[in-house]
């Protein structure tokens, strides 16, 4: 039965009224309207029925009980003898079968007039909502009527597609998620059940531990690192001062959370166990103690570590975990375990350490390799002191939460940073072997991503490019050339193979226990040894070696606060770039730096091999040509090796191969760069720059570097202001070497027996002594002839113009360089903007975003050939560089 028929059928509950039963006067109320008897009370009259069946006296139920009514609750018939009308106006069809014909389709009813039976249609807009409201069966009908809420072809679902989808999909999705959760829990449960009891692994902790062996280029052993200096101590012999210091540094809530840290573990899982994962002491102990856990960074290893740590936290007492941890952790100075650390740093038994020393032991756990020897390294010492202060504050925090741990604030405030004994625990770190060990460890960490604990315990074999004979030659070159070097002098040497980037030898100082690794880590101003990068930038912008610049002294330049002077304040007149390089003419090179722009010089230097962090040591400006940036000996050796290799930079490195304990080779993270190299500048630029640098040795201030066998040498001297640093950096086709001298206190160099300390008189001699030994037995190779790349031109104002200027010169100087050479110049115009340019401040590179300041065409040819007088320069030092 359709919804409409059910709406008009008897015995139904109205949309918002009471169910069947008492309905007032028996009238049917329309949807949201008055009762039927109220609507037609004035025109209806009760039927003249002998049975007395009136609408207002019992409704349909009463009529059904009368004679002639339908059986079983059907709709009652009209009263016998009725004239067939409910009233005088509406006819009513009599039912011939006792019940209304229910086979009639609702669709056949008239749309225009009222249906028989005297009841109006319900409002059509009620639709399904009214049908739902009248869904109850009439009690006055026999069975067989459908509920209003039943399926009907006329009904439809008016919800959107997304709601219909989720109405059907949420149950399967919920079931699927529940099954996945149950499966995951089951897998973890099985994995946890199969995790061995950590106490059964006690005998496996030292089975695979081995030292790392470092070998020279010829296969001989140079040094070993990681030989375990360990003395096992029981928990009762470890004082509370050390326990407090370690917990304050590593995990202050250890006794409340001995297993794993939920937040730290989630962080570690998301990073696959990368640094910063937040491992607890139990996790660190498990990773270092049980050989079932490797040091690889992977999810599976992290999961095994977590499961073992959970089981350890549940089955082992916290003091037992702490004992194993303190006996296995690495503390630097080749000390494994807290007992060895106490001896290495304080020369006493661990049981004798006080609170300040215990806090120190905890502080160095974070960076044992960096904190093991901070003498002479103020920056690292400051970091260590900050870490110690952090641990001391942690002692107070722990005590506030648990009176049995830590120290009261009154006692903690009295602690003072402890004094350690000098670094020197054995023959291994004495002499050059100590420098080799630290240099290799640093490279294993940066290029192979190995941790200090892996290096010390995993049994790696490291092959290097270091030549033991050249290592000895480097040490002897300093000792024999400058035998009375003051102890505060910083000495550095590094030799790099241009074609591979391999470090063949280096020298860091006389005593590793006293001096940091000077040649690879400490920096000093480059001085004029930085000028080849300015020269390369000019050649890349097609400024030929034959181009001339004003070499007079002094001169003022835009962007430079003080006038620039040459060595001895000498005037060189018009000088080309070959002579400028040979005699290190400051004024011409500052003008060249302005022409190409300091950013271009920085880009060339970085590409050649100068590490990017070195350019944070000074501000960028035209005086970049004078070497204001600080560099290391390794930086300079790698940078000049790029010139020797035709403009292709090979990453500098000393490790050539690493294999693990199983003989498997480990690949570095820069394998592709080592294979292909990185182009820094063109081969033509490298050839011409090399030619100019050969003149430094043959006709300039670096003649002290000439080798005894007469083979060609290219190089550059460098002396910073007031002789605070002295350099010579040079190369043959087979090897590039840098030698640098400076002081760790920043004062001027003072060397007994040497009246004037310059790169050409000190560092050049050390360079010659080393390279003479390094080139023994090597084939003499020649450099390529110059190609004279670029266009010849004259830059800067001419000191003495040869032709009288025009009677009516232009009143306003051009703001940008001329792009077409003048055929008959009367005076070479400046190629830089005037200094009163408000937008560019007289510096063309400042306006790169506003105008095209590309490589200017030279304004005219030089008047003659370069004048190579061969006169050695003096040593007057003015601004940043002495000009040597």
TrEMBL record:
Cited InterPro entries: Beta-lactam/transpept-like, Glyco_trans_51, Glycosyltr_51/Transpeptidase, Lysozyme-like_dom_sf, PBP_transglycosylase, PCN-bd_Tpept
Domain Penicillin-binding protein transpeptidase stretches: 496-767
Low complexity: bias regions: 105-114, 801-826
UniProt entry tagged with the keyword Protein transport: no
GO terms, molecular function: penicillin binding; peptidoglycan glycosyltransferase activity; serine-type D-Ala-D-Ala carboxypeptidase activity
CC terms in the record's Gene Ontology section: outer membrane-bounded periplasmic space
Transmembrane residue ranges: 173-193
GO biological process: peptidoglycan biosynthetic process; proteolysis
Region of interest called Disordered, as start-end residue ranges on this chain: 1-160, 786-884
Domain Glycosyl transferase family, first and last residues per copy: 226-391
Compositional bias of kind Basic and acidic residues: 87-104
Assigned keywords, A-Z: Carboxypeptidase, Glycosyltransferase, Hydrolase, Membrane, Multifunctional enzyme, Protease, Transferase, Transmembrane, Transmembrane helix
PANTHER family assigned to the protein according to its UniProt record, in alphabetical order: BINDING PROTEIN TRANSPEPTIDASE, PUTATIVE-RELATED (PTHR32282), PENICILLIN-BINDING PROTEIN 1A (PTHR32282:SF34)
Protein name: Membrane peptidoglycan carboxypeptidase
């Amino acid at each position: 039965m359709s919804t409409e028929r059910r709406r008009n059928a008897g015995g139904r509950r109205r949309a918002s009224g009471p169910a069947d039963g008492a309905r007032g006067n028996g009238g049917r109320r329309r949807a949201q309207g008055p009762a039927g008897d109220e609507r037609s009370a004035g025109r209806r009259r009760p039927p003249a029925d002998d049975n007395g069946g009136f609408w207002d006296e019992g409704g349909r139920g009463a009529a059904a009980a009368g004679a002639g009514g339908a059986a079983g609750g059907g709709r009652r018939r009209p009263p016998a003898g009725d004239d067939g009308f409910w009233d005088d106006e509406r006819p009513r069809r009599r039912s011939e079968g006792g019940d209304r014909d229910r086979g009639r389709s609702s669709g056949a009813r008239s749309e225009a007039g009222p249906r028989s039976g005297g009841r109006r249609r319900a409002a059509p807009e009620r639709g399904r909502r009214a049908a739902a409201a009248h869904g109850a069966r009439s009690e006055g009908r026999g069975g067989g009527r459908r509920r209003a809420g039943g399926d009907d072809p006329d009904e439809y679902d008016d919800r959107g597609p997304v709601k219909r989808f989720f109405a059907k999909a949420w149950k399967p999705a919920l079931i699927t998620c529940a099954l996945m959760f149950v499966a995951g829990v089951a897998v973890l449960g099985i994995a946890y059940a199969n995790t061995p009891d950590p106490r059964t692994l006690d005998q496996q902790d030292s089975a695979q531990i081995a030292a790392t062996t470092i070998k020279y280029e010829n296969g001989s052993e140079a040094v070993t690192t990681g030989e375990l200096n360990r003395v096992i101590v029981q928990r009762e012999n470890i004082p509370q001062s050390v326990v407090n210091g370690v917990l304050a540094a590593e995990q202050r809530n250890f006794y409340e959370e001995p297993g794993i840290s939920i937040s730290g573990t989630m962080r570690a899982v998301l990073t696959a166990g990368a640094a910063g994962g937040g491992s607890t002491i139990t996790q660190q102990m498990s990773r270092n103690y049980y050989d079932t856990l490797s040091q690889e960074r992977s999810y599976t290893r992290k999961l095994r570590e977590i499961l073992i740590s959970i089981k350890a936290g549940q089955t082992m007492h916290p003091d037992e975990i702490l004992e194993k941890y303190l006996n296995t952790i690495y503390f630097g100075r080749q000390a494994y375990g807290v007992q060895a650390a106490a001896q290495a740093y304080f020369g006493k038994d661990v049981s004798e350490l006080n609170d300040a020393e215990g806090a120190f032991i905890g502080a160095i756990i974070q960076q044992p390799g960096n904190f093991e020897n901070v003498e002479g390294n103020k920056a690292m010492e400051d970091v260590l002191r900050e870490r110690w202060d952090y641990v001391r504050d942690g002692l107070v925090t722990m005590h506030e939460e648990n009176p049995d741990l830590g120290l009261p604030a009154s006692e903690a405030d009295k602690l003072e940073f402890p004094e350690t004994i000098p670094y020197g625990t054995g023959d291994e770190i004495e002499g050059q072997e100590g420098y080799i060990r630290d240099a290799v460890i640093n490279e294993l960490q940066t290029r192979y991503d190995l941790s200090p604990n892996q290096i010390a315990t995993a049994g790696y074999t490291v092959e290097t490019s270091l030549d033991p004979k050249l290592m000895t030659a480097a040490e002897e070159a300093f000792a024999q050339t400058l035998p009375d070097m003051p102890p505060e002098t910083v000495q550095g040497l590094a030799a790099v193979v241009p074609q591979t980037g391999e470090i063949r030898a280096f020298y860091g100082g006389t005593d590793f226990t006293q001096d940091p690794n000077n040649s690879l880590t400490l920096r000093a101003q480059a001085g004029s040894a930085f000028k080849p990068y300015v020269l390369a930038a000019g050649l890349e912008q097609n400024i030929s070696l034959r181009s001339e610049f004003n070499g007079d002294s002094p001169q003022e330049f835009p962007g430079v606060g003080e006038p620039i002077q040459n060595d001895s304040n000498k005037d060189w007149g018009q000088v080309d770039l070959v002579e400028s390089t040979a005699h290190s003419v400051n004024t011409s090179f500052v003008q060249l730096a302005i022409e190409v722009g300091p950013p271009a010089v920085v880009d060339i230097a970085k590409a050649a091999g100068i590490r990017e962090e070195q350019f944070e040591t000074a501000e960028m400006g035209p005086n970049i040509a004078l070497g204001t940036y600080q560099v290391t000996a390794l930086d300079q050796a790698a940078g000049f090796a790029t010139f020797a290799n035709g403009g292709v930079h090979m990453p500098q490195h000393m490790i050539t191969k690493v294999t693990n304990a199983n003989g498997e080779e480990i690949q570095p993270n820069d394998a592709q760069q080592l294979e292909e190299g990185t182009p820094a500048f063109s081969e033509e630029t490298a050839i011409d720059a090399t030619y100019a640098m050969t003149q430094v040795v043959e006709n300039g201030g670096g003649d002290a570097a000439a080798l005894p066998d007469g083979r060609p040498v290219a190089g550059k001297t460098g002396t910073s202001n007031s002789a605070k640093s002295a350099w010579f950096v040079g190369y043959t086709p087979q090897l590039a070497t840098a030698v640098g001298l400076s002081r760790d206190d920043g004062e001027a160099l003072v060397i007994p027996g040497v009246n004037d300390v310059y790169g050409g008189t000190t560092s050049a001699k050390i360079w010659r002594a080393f390279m003479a030994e390094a080139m023994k037995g090597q084939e003499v190779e020649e450099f390529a002839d110059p190609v004279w790349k670029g266009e010849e031109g004259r830059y800067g104002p001419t000191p003495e113009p040869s032709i009288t200027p025009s009677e009516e010169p232009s009143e306003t100087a051009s703001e940008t360089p001329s792009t077409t050479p003048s055929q008959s110049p009367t005076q070479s115009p400046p190629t830089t903007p005037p200094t009163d340019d408000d937008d560019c401040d007289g510096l063309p590179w400042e306006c790169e975003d506003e105008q095209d300041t590309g490589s200017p065409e030279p304004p005219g040819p030089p008047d003659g050939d370069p004048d190579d007088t061969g006169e050695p320069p003096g040593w007057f030092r003015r601004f940043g560089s002495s000009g040597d």
